[in-house]
Specification:
The chain has 382 residues and is of the alpha+beta class. It has helices at residues 8-19, 26-32, 37-48, 69-81, 87-96, 104-113, 180-194, 217-223, 241-255, 263-279; strands spanning 140-144, 148-149, 155-163, 169-175, 199-202, 228-231, 316-319, 325-328, 331-334, 343-348, 355-360, 363-369, 374-377. The strands form three sheets. Strands 1, 2, 3, 4, 5 and 6 form a six-stranded mixed β-sheet that branches. A five-stranded antiparallel β-sheet has the order 7-10-11-12-13, with no helix packed on it. It has a two-stranded antiparallel ribbon with strand order 8-9. The protein is rod-shaped, with a radius of gyration of 35 Å.
Length: 382
């Protein structure tokens, strides 16, 4: 049986003292101290050699599978630099730096050994079925990451634009507000640098959305560039899941720290992290590639002065007046305030008698039913 828990070393010293007495019965002493003869002889031998009677370390003298101290320091340094990165991301980043850590399991063990990983983080992640567009610039996702408090009570509104295929962060800008003019200015700068996407998706909040699914001024501005505009369903943030995931990384790796002083300081932090995100941070959804490896600018250049829409000779053309209405057939029909001042075309629907579609450029924005004398307008017709 094992030694008693209380005063273990004292019991061993007492046993040795008694065992060294003249005429001592070693096996009888072992029975009284409830240890095996093998254990008794071991402690007696150590005492005779002048060795301490405390427990020795069970750490092996040689650990062939133990990683080198230099590698351990490199892993810990990279983890402290990127505290939200897991073992797989750290492994691929180390390899990109020319350091071979053997396997993610080795990195994970180093993190655990150095108390750099929490029990919750070590649990297996849920496998998700992902969808992505096949080419860069097929779809951009855009949103605000709420607002962030700054010193002095000011607010920062991080505007984010993400390419769906590559997860490349096209924009991470510290905005002072969430106004339509602010978003348009940032979009102009992004499109001048990266070109124009085929489609953009946003939620239904201001400034780009409308709960009633009406077109907005920003919708029309994007449509002038030939961009198809779509909006996520209300209360379904997963529609923009990649941008939402980007926001989680932004919060974990940048916004969790102390409040930043002003918008300029916030922008400096955003620019630095965006460079890390695009060029250095591996993504599991990209087979551990970085976004830069999968992104390329669009072949469609931003048009500084798009021309007004042109229509065919057979089209009935009307100008949208105040309140977003057009005059036709002796009545006013509402097609949307976002198109005030624009010329639209009225075309009969060949499949439905008495039904006419209203187009702005190539986009159908309203449908007029002369039989019921009603009009449907907005993005509900998408």
């Amino acid at each position: 049986m094992p030694w008693q828990e209380v005063s273990t070393v004292t019991l061993r010293e007492e046993f040795v003292a008694l065992a060294q007495q003249e005429g001592a019965n070693l096996r009888s002493l072992c029975r009284h101290f409830e240890i095996s003869p093998t254990t008794g002889y071991k402690w007696l031998q150590r005492a005779r050699q002048g060795q301490p009677l405390s427990d020795r370390s069970r750490r092996p003298k040689h650990s062939p599978m133990q990683c080198e101290a230099q590698l351990e320091e490199q892993v810990c340094a990279l983890r402290r630099q990127h505290p939200a990165w897991g073992a797989r991301k750290l492994t691929h980043r180390l390899r990109a730096l020319g350091i071979e850590p053997a396997a993610p399991s080795t990195v994970h063990a180093i993190l655990r050994r150095n108390a750099l990983i929490t029990p919750a983080a070590s649990q297996a992640a849920t496998a998700w079925q992902r969808f992505e567009h096949p080419q860069p610039n097929d779809l951009w996702q855009m949103d605000f990451k709420g607002h962030v408090g700054l010193h002095g009570g000011a607010r920062c509104h991080p505007l984010t634009i993400l390419d769906d295929h590559s997860r490349y962060a096209l924009c991470l800008h510290a905005c002072a507000d969430e106004q339509e003019t602010t978003v348009r200015e940032r979009l102009q700068a992004v499109m001048r640098r990266y070109g124009v996407p085929a489609r953009m998706t946003m939620d239904n909040g201001s400034p780009w959305g409308s709960a009633q699914r009406h077109y907005t001024a920003l919708d029309v501005w994007l449509m002038r560039q030939g961009i198809r505009v779509s909006h996520s369903r209300p209360y379904h943030p997963q529609t923009q899941g990649k941008d939402e995931r980007f926001h989680r990384s932004l919060k974990a790796e940048v916004l969790q720290g102390p409040p930043m002083g002003d918008l300029q300081q916030a922008q400096t932090a955003f620019d630095r992290w965006r460079g890390i995100y695009n060029r250095h941070r591996p993504h599991e959804a990209l087979d551990m590639c970085v976004p830069l490896q999968r992104y390329r600018p669009s072949e469609r250049a931003y048009c500084e002065h798009p021309v007004a829409p042109e229509y065919g000779d057979a089209d009935l053309v009307r100008k949208v007046q105040d309140q977003g209405r057009i005059a036709w057939q002796g009545r006013n029909w509402r097609v949307g305030k976002a198109f005030i001042g624009e010329r639209v075309a009225i075309r009969p629907d060949g499949a439905l008698d008495g039904v006419h579609d209203v187009f702005w450029s190539i986009w159908r924005i309203a449908r007029i039913n002369l039989r019921s004398m009603t009009v449907s307008s907005g993005r509900i017709l998408d």
